[in-house]
Amino acid sequence: MLHIEVSHVAKTYGNVQAVQDLSFTIPGGQIFALLGPNGAGKSSLIRMLVGLTLPDQGQISVTLAGQQHSSLPEGCFGYLPEDRGLYLDKTVVENLQYIGQLRGLTKSQIAEQLEHWLQRLDLLDKRKENLSKLSKGNQQKVQLISCLMHQPALLILDEPFSGLDPINQEHVLTILAELKAKGTTVLLSAHQMALVERLADQMMLLNKGQVVAHGNLQQVTQQLDPKVSYSVRFTANIDSAKLGDCQSVRHWQAQSELQFLLELHDHATVNQLLQELSQLGTLADFSRQQPSLHDLYLAAVQHHNQAPDTTQTISTQSISEGVAA
Amino acid sequence: MKIWTIALFEFKRYFKWKQELIGIGLMVLIFTLTSLWPMLKNALDKDYNVAVLATTGSVPELDGFKFQLLPPDKKADVAAGVGDVWDAVIDTSVTPVQLLAEEKASWQDKLKTTVQKWQQQRLISALPLSAEQQQLIAKLPEIKVELLKADSGAKDDKGQKLVSAGLLFLLALGVFSGFGFMFTAITTEKQNRVTEQLLTLLTPQQWMDGKILGISLFCLKSMLTSGLFFFLVIQAFRLIDNKPMQAIPMTGFEVFSALLFVGLGLLLVNSFMAGFAATIDDPNHSSRSIMMFLPAAPLGLAFSVMDNAEGLMMQILSLFPLTSFAAMPLRMANSAVPMWEWALSLLLLIGCLWWFKAAASRVFALGIRMYGKEPDWSDIARAFVGRKART
Predict the structure, then answer these.
(1) A172-198 pLDDT, tens digit each
(2) CA A118, CA A126: separation in Å to the nearest integer?
(3) What gap in Å lies between CA A82 and CA A41, rounded to an integer?
(4) Rounded CA gap, A178 and A2, in Å?
(5) Distance between CA B147 and CA B143 in Å, rounded?
(6) Are residues B244 and B316 in the same domain?
(7) What are phi and psi of A90, to 5 degrees?
(8) Where are the alpha helices (H) located in chain A, listed in sequence order?
(9) What ipTM was reported for this prediction?
(10) Does residue B228 contact residue B236 with C-beta atoms inside 8 Å?
(11) ABC-2 type transporter transmembrane domain spans which residues (chain B) (predicted)?
(12) CB-count exposure of residue A121 (10 Å: 0-12, 13-18, 19+)
C-alpha cells in the first residue's frame, strides 16, 4: 500500500498564496477527499503531489512497499487532471494504447486492460471512434481508463464526477469502492458532497489554501461546529409560546401544529431539554437533526471567508491531537 | 524507449497511408499531364502555311509551320490568298525581308526569329567566301578552359546547379513542414489540455525529444519522397526528349554527407520550434507566431551565396553551426570541401545541437505548463540560458 505524508507544504503564484503550510497524511488503502470551493488550493496541492509543480516550502514523502521516496515513484500512480485532455483526432483505442505504451505496458497487457475497462465503462462499441465524436462524459471515461489501465497503487482524481451523469457517477463510485477494497489508495477532489460523504474515509476541507476541517465524516462535522437542532413532535397541541420560555432552547421553529425544530443553548443538555419539553406535553417523537455535509461545507466556507485572518483556520496539528485524544 | 514511442506516435500522427497514396497519385497525374501536354498541344494546334518568295534555295524549318518556296513574281497572287490560303508570306526579294500577314499574332515572333537566322545563313552563303570562312562567321568562337590544378575539384556541370537548387528546395520543404507540424502539434496539445497527464508520465525533455525525432523523421521522409519523385520526373522528361538519363553529379559520400547535415539541421530547427511553440498560448492571437519563421533564415543566407560556392562567405556559413546544415551540402555540391572543414563543421553542428536541444527543452518545460498566458521574453531568455524563471 502507498502512504503519503505531506509536511508544511506551501505554494505561492505571484501574490496569491495557493497553499499555506499544509500538513496531513493520506493513509494507504483509503479514499481521501479534498473539498473546497474553486480556488481553494485543491488542484495546486494535487499538482505538487504528482510532481507537476514543486512546493515553495515543505516536504512530500511517499512510502511504498516499505521504501520511502521524496516524490511519487514513476508508474505507481494514475492521475486524472482537472483540465482533461487526450488527442481528439485519435480513436479511443489509439489514445489508450499510446498512454499504455508510455506507462510501459506490453501490447498484450494493454489489450487485456482495454478489453476489461472498455466493457466495464460501456465503451466497447465506441473503441474505434475518434475522441472528438464522443460526448464529454464518454471522453471523461476514456481519460479515467487511461489512469486505471496500469493498475496503480495510488489514484489521484481531480474532479472525477464533473461531466458525468448520475448513472455514470454511480458507476465510478462502485469502481472506486472496488479499487479501495483491493488496497488502492485514492485521493480525489470533488464538489459533490453527497458522493464524497458516501465514499471518503477521510476528507479535508480547504479554503484559500488553508485547512478548514480534516478527518472522517464525524470528525469533520464536529470541527465545523454545526448548530445541532432537534426535531420534536407532540401527541397533542401545545402552547407553542411556552417553548420560548424553556431555558435550554435558544431558538425554535414550528414545522406543523404538532412538530417543532429546536436549537439549544451552548450550555444546555439534551436531558434538560427533554425534562422541559415533557412539562409542555407528551412527546411522540424526538430526534437529532444532522446537517448534511453540503450545508456544513457552505457554512464553513462562508464563515472562513468572513474571518479576518488565518486564526480561524483549524490547525491540522490540533486536529490530529484532538482525534488521538 | 519512451522517446521512440513518442517519436513513432508523432510520425504516425502525420503519416497516413491513404494520404500518402493520394499524394503520390496526384503527383503521377500531374507528371502524366505535363508530359502529355506538348503532344496534346501539337495535336490540337494547326500547322501554319507560309509562302516563301525566293528564287532558289532551301526553306526555313520550324515545328508547326509548313513552308512552300514560290517565285517572287507570284507575289500578287500569294498576297491575295493571305488569311485564306496562307497564314504568312515571306518575301526575300525586298530589303529588308518582308513578313506579310493578315493581322498581328503571337506565332509571328517565333517565325520572325527563325526567318532571321535562315536569311542570315543565306546571305553568308552568297558571299564570295570559302566554306571554312563561312563556318567561321556563322559559329561563335570556342574557348577551351585549362586548369593549372586539375584535381581542384571545381565542378561546372549543369547537373550541379540542378542539385543545388533541388537541395535548397527540399531543405525549405523540410524546414517549413517542421514548422507547420511542430507548431500545430504543440499548440493543439496545449489547447486540448493533453499536457497535464502526459507530464506525469514523461519529463519535458523526453516529450520534446520524442516530438523532435518523430517530426524530423517525417520531414526527412517528405524531403526524400519529393526528391525521388522530382528526380524520376526529370528522367522521364529526358526519356521523352530522347536524351540520356541525368546522373546525380554527387558521390556516395556527398549524398551521405548531405543527408547527415540536413538530418541534424532538421533536429536543430525543430528543437527551436518545439521550445518556442510551447510558449505560444493561442496561435490565432499570439504575435510570437512570426518568430517561428526564423529558422528559414539559414536557407536564405545559403541561397544568397550559392552562386559563389568557393567564396569566403560560403566557407563561413558552411562552418557556422546555425547555417552549416544548409550551406555545407550546397557547397559540397558545387565545389570540393577540405576534409578538415567538413569534420569541423559536423562537430560544431553536433555540439550546437546538443546544447540547443537542452536549452530549448528548458523553454519547452517553462511554456508547456502555462495555460491562458505566455511566459514573458525575459523568462524565456532566463530559461534558455539555464536560469530559473521568475514566475
Answers:
(1) 999 999 999 999 999 999 888 888 888
(2) 9
(3) 13
(4) 16
(5) 13
(6) yes
(7) -110, 155
(8) 42-49, 92-102, 107-120, 136-148, 166-181, 193-199, 217-223, 270-280, 293-306, 316-324
(9) 0.71
(10) no
(11) 109-351
(12) buried
- What is the four-CA torsion angle of B85, B90, B92, B98, rounded to 10 degrees? 120
User: What parts of chain B have a pLDDT lower than 50?
Assistant: 391
Q: Which of residues 211-270 of B touch A (CB under 8 A)?
A: none
Task: Give the lowest-confidence range in A79-83, A109-113, A288-292.
Answer: A288-292
Q: Tell me the pLDDT band of A310, cut-offs 50, 70 and 90.
A: very low
Residues B273 and B241 in one domain: yes
What separation in angstroms does the CA of B368 have from each of A225, A314, B35, B378? 43, 36, 49, 17
Residue B213 domain-assigned (yes or no):
yes
Q: Is the Cβ of B202 closer than 8 Å to some Cβ of chain A?
A: yes
* Closest CA relative to residue B220, chosen from B265, B182, B255: B265
Same domain assignment for residues A204 and A120: yes
Please answer yes or no on whether A103 and B194 come within 8 Å at the CB atom: no
| Sheet of strand A249-254: strand arrangement | A249-254, A259-264, A229-234, A283-289
Give the closest of A77, A83, A102 to B2, CB-based: A102
B246: which DSSP letter?
A: P
Q: Spell B117-137 as b/e; 16+ CB within 10 A means b.
A: ebbeebeeeeeeeeeeeeeee
DSSP character for B127? S
* Closest residue by Cα to residue B287 from B271, B301, B276: B276
Calculate the CA dihedral of residues B278, B283, B288, B292 and round it to 10 degrees. 70
Q: In terms of domains, do B225 and B351 share one?
A: yes
Residue corresponding to grid cell 513542414 = B177
- B43 CB within 8 Å of a chain A CB: no
Residue at a domain's end among A172, A203, A223:
A223
Q: How many CB atoms lie within 10 A of CB B256?
A: 11
Of A13, A51, A89, the CB nearest to B200: A51
Last residue of a domain, one of A223, A242, A266: A223
Same domain for A160 and A245? Answer: no
Question: How many Å lie between the alpha carbon of A286 and the closest alpha carbon of chain B?
Answer: 52
B194 contacts A53? CB cut-off 8 A: no
Kindly report the three-state secondary structure assignment for every residue of B33-69: HHHHHHHHHHHHCCCEEEEEECCCCCCCCCCCEEEEE
State how far Cα B147 lies from the chain centre: 31
The rounded distance, in Å, linking the Cα atoms of B298 and B324 is: 8
Mean pLDDT estimate for chain A: 86
- Whether A297 maps to a domain, the answer reads no
Contact between A288 and A230 under an 8 Å Cβ cutoff? The reply is: yes
The pLDDT assigned to B154 comes to 55
* Its pTM surpasses 0.90: no
What nine digits make up the cell of B250?
Answer: 554527387
